[in-house]
Design goal:
Helices cover about 75% and strands about 0% of the residues. The chain is mainly alpha-helical and about 110 residues long. The chain has one domain.
Length: about 110
């Protein structure tokens, strides 16, 4: 079986699991902010790279909190909204400012 290759290799090797959820979500928010900024500048290559990093961090976070159904549900819902905004038809009418505000709260908790 092939070993998975991670963008954030040090996080995948256990460092991510040692971070508090607020810091994890704040870091995800940073990648989302980058993706939105690159989207605004029409730099798809950089936007896609930020999206890939955000998705990897979402998946690492979900794995860290699999034993906490309420946390896992919240993280999965946030990932779903992120994916709907960038890949879907935005039937959920995700507002990018509201999405950023959600993650900014986590960043503020860690400052």
């Amino acid at each position: 079986m092939d070993k998975l290759t991670y963008i954030h290799q040090d996080y995948a090797n256990g460092k991510w699991a040692r971070l508090p959820l607020t810091l994890q979500m704040g870091n995800i928010g940073s990648e989302i902010s980058r993706a939105l900024n690159w989207q605004k500048k029409a730099k798809k290559k950089y936007q896609d790279a930020a999206i890939d990093r955000a998705l990897e961090l979402f998946d690492l976070t979900i794995a860290c909190h699999a034993n906490s159904p309420s946390k896992e549900k919240e993280i999965c819902r946030a990932r779903e909204e992120f994916c709907e905004y960038f890949f879907g038809t935005n039937d959920l009418e995700i507002d990018k400012k509201a999405m950023l505000n959600y993650y900014d709260q986590f960043a503020l908790m860690n400052s």
